[in-house]
Amino acid sequence: MIDKNFLIDTSVWIKCFREEESSLKEKIAAIVSENRGYTTEIIIMEILRGAKSDKEYSMLYQDFLALPQLTINGYVWETAWKTAYKLRKSGINAPMADVIISSIALHHKCKLMHSDKHFNLIAKHTEIKVVEV
């Protein structure tokens, strides 16, 4: 996989759901339709826990399971452990989910599309490529 692909973070999906502006929605739709947009189990969990009803949960569940998923393996965990230690040693206390998500993107050689300040901090201390929207 080359870095023309994107792991789309929860923060971007939430922004898409809330924004009236169609440019972000169009950008995400294009990436997904070109099979360049990915998710992972943690992002799905973050999205589903925010569902406001059973109907919305069911709709989100089906939509997100239709996206290709990037998996967590031993290399991802090892990278996450080292990254969390390195960040903490540098005085940065990033959320564990963000460290794991960034490690998934790094392992699968995807750019991480986000709208979350923690990913920019993580990027300063790792090789992850981020795109803030």
Order of helices and strands: EHHEHHHHEHE
Please indicate the count of domains. 1
The major β-sheet equals: 4 strands, parallel
Count the beta strands: 4
**Multimer state:** single chain
Question: What is the CATH superfamily label?
Answer: 5'-nuclease
What amount of the residues lies in strands? Answer: 5-15%
Rg, Å, rounded: 15 Å
Helix content: 55-70%
Biggest β-sheet: strands ordered side by side in the sheet: 2-1-3-4
Q: Which CATH architecture is right?
A: 3-Layer(aba) Sandwich
Low-confidence stretches: none
State the helix count: 7
Distance between the termini: 22 Å
Q: Compute the average pLDDT.
A: 95
The secondary structure category is: alpha/beta
Report on this model:
- Helix content is 59%, strand content 9%.
- The protein is globular, with a radius of gyration of 15 Å.
- It has one domain: Rossmann fold (3-Layer(aba) Sandwich).
- Helix 3 runs antiparallel to helix 4 and helix 5 packs across helix 6.
- It is built from seven helices and four strands.
- The chain has a four-stranded parallel sheet.
Task: Give descriptors for this structure.
alpha/beta; 9% strand; 133 residues; Rossmann fold; 7 helices; four-stranded parallel beta sheet
Put the structure in a nutshell.
This protein has 133 residues and is α/β, with parallel strands linked by helices. The protein contains seven helices and four strands, in the order E-H-H-E-H-H-H-H-E-H-E. Helices cover 59% and strands 9% of the residues.
Blueprint of the fold:
Elements: E1 6-8, H1 10-18, H2 22-33, E2 37-38, H3 41-49, H4 54-65, H5 74-89, H6 96-107, E3 111-114, H7 117-124, E4 130-132
Parallel strand pairs: 1-2, 1-3, 3-4
